[in-house]
Amino acid sequence: MLYLLPFLMAVISFFLPPAEKKTDKNPNIILIYMDDLGYGDLSCYGALGYKTPALDRLASKGMRFTNFLSAQAVCSASRAALLTGCYPNRMGVSGAYFPNSKVGLSPDEVTIAELLKQKSYKTGAVGKWHLGDNPVFMPLNQGFDSYFGIPYSNDMWPVHYDGAPATNWKKSIPTLPLILNKDTFALLNTLKDQENLTKQYTERAISFIEKNKKSPFFLYLAHTMPHVPIAVSDRFKNYTGQGLFADLMSEIDWSVDTLVHSLDRLGLSKNTMIIFTSDNGPWLNYGNHAGSAGGFREGKGTTFEGGQRVPAIFYWPGVIPSGSISNHLTATIDIFPTLAELLNLNLPHVKIDGLSILPMLKGALKSPIRREFYYYYRKNALEAIRYDQWKLVFKHPGRTYTQHLPGNDGFPGTAPEDFPFPMALYNLNRDPSELYDVQEAYPEIMDKLNKLAERVRADLGDELTGVEGKGRRPIGSVN
Amino acid sequence: MLYLLPFLMAVISFFLPPAEKKTDKNPNIILIYMDDLGYGDLSCYGALGYKTPALDRLASKGMRFTNFLSAQAVCSASRAALLTGCYPNRMGVSGAYFPNSKVGLSPDEVTIAELLKQKSYKTGAVGKWHLGDNPVFMPLNQGFDSYFGIPYSNDMWPVHYDGAPATNWKKSIPTLPLILNKDTFALLNTLKDQENLTKQYTERAISFIEKNKKSPFFLYLAHTMPHVPIAVSDRFKNYTGQGLFADLMSEIDWSVDTLVHSLDRLGLSKNTMIIFTSDNGPWLNYGNHAGSAGGFREGKGTTFEGGQRVPAIFYWPGVIPSGSISNHLTATIDIFPTLAELLNLNLPHVKIDGLSILPMLKGALKSPIRREFYYYYRKNALEAIRYDQWKLVFKHPGRTYTQHLPGNDGFPGTAPEDFPFPMALYNLNRDPSELYDVQEAYPEIMDKLNKLAERVRADLGDELTGVEGKGRRPIGSVN
């Protein structure tokens, strides 16, 4: 009778619902990571003056998150966290690496790309890397089969805001290279050379998808924009009549639209999850060349919500409920364990801080998954801590944009870096803008959060209180 | 050949697309108007701590507005504007009417109910009225066939915040009546008597729909909640575990869900437009019993965006594009002329300030319809003016909630009413929270807005500059 088995299985599979069959195949994952895109920069998050219809459509057909945090409000730290599922200081990563950095994300850390290799995913990175520009830290040594992009931020070059050669400290920085796999593909000498980055990234992303359409693939598309200096391709110049930032957001939206259409064209839509989010809030100091925190306090480089609350859209037709809103506390570090659970992969043998939000994505959530979050900044300062709606901000010196006029047209304003923020307790459910310090009214909450902070400090350390911490993993180093 | 005409028309209509046929029948209109619901109080607008899935669904299947203003940030004025399509000061309406008011919305003004009577709509008002409690100003004298609700705000009664008899000026106010058509249906003596208001309104609304399911109808459902004192029915007590305001938002969401299901059950969904919005921003002074302005500055009773920017969802399956976002400047006064255009009705022979947004609702919009908005408060003070993204705030004394701790559990905090706000120019596209005064950087915009303000003052008057205005219509009066 055994010879009938293939036939019987075919008959059985014929009667299985098609959706079930589809999820048998490992889904493709596209992770779109923006640079300095603020919470308020998409129409579906309240942006005014331009529209992002493709991203709004993604949201209206997927799940839109309103309580989603980047792990740290600065480039390298936030990227290290995204790709590993850990608070960046657990791996010794902080700040934004400069060119010719001796340190970077340790190759011993398991990235999402390496995680997915357990199931033989084809992995491609396109865009800004910023986890160390020495080859040992670069994408091809961190689980990616291919790479196209710039190794760090697009303002790390010997060019001034207005395109003139830099006269300040920047003049010692090398010309910005565009890398293809391991080699320099082009040198970006002028602002004009940055104009096509969004378009080029998009084209490379689509080539990667087309090339790997038969394998499950992981595409990490980390746009350079809207980090300053902002620039658009010819087609989007004066596209909106509302200034360069609005034009740029239209080009970013075009990029997403083009990707989605490519998936449709290749018949991959039903088997691909798209995740869209940002590395931190807007660099408000750049005024009309910066995004908006959408009403949250402060922006990039701060532990106020404007620095870390970012847009997040998860889109997977047929799996993630259409038009749903998630307002549970979630973070970029949750993506790593979510993919691990989705694909039944082994987690690394080191501590992971993220929590799988798979039940949430499937719409079957009854209670919150994440209740705590630790807001670190500087080298290793625990500036704030969160438990449910409560956010306790510790006394710390920090960047402030308020009461200082931002710059214009690419020139920065003056945002003090050491404003003495006092300790304060905020109820983010009732006071999203962190205006009202209620520590006196809630002594029991203060007690709970202070105890939690002690536990966090003992684990991850805290330069504000001089606690060393333990269990910190060594940073990657070439020396 | 003429005798063949009916037959030919039947043949032609058979080949017309069904959508076209459906719009031949005048659609039902349901206008849900909340009291003190802030911009940030629905999940789809970023509310945390509770969910509003029915309203989120309405938004994801309809059009959600992010740049939508109530005409004035206080009860009576905003309602007069909503129902007539005019700035309230054009009709002499300002503030919030007290019990036994000698003045009210003039019966000579044409309300939406009277407008729709041109096409024999059945009209019902359920909920808070607040346009004068003398019978000459009440719903049955303003175009409504039926009425069930309270005549003014639910805190206008001789009861203190904690439910005890008032010891202050409130003790001279009569017991709060619940009115059925023209008669007192019940007296609301205690906080407990307010607990079933949301439920009762919902049941009355559904009865109205069932009774009029064969006629085109207009239902104006003006909830009493979440205006203080807030209260929920038994089913929603401790529903969320996140406090009374969260429980109340769940009951409001239930109410919307129940209405939508009733339309489905009666086969009316495809031919009914639902509009959901609010009269003004949150009364922040009430702390955990108030909503949230979602990051906008200040709240109810102010001309900052927190006072006037409100959620707005327009839902009409098959006509309004699903999952769309409108971020063009729009206002409650635009609803009146939109309905007039939709149904081809004659506008009143007096000036109407609203502009039809019908092309926007049909998704066929190329350019903004409304570019100006005038922010009035107090008796007749032009406190701010808007042109596109620019908002010029004039020097004025005003209410401020910031830096003053709000109250708790129904007790108010102390919000000064006369803070001396200076003149400031804000770019709302880049600075949604009105933080950065940029008047020095944009002299030409200042000039344009100041000229616009002169024109507005000459028309509607301005107590701040002592301009009388002209063409103001007389307020309704019983003496």
Work out the radius of gyration of chain A: 22 Å
Strand order of the largest sheet of chain A: 8-7-6-5-9-1-10-11-2-12
Low-confidence spans of chain A: pLDDT under 50, at least 5 residues?
A: 9-23
Distance between the termini of chain A: 65 Å
**Oligomeric grouping of the chains:** homodimer
What class would the helix/strand composition of chain A place it in?
A: alpha/beta
Compute the average pLDDT of chain A. Answer: 94
Tell me what portion of residues of chain A adopts beta-strand conformation: 15-25%
Keywords:
Alkaline Phosphatase, subunit A, 12 helices, globular, homodimer, 4-stranded antiparallel beta sheet, alpha/beta, 479 residues, Arylsulfatase, C-terminal domain
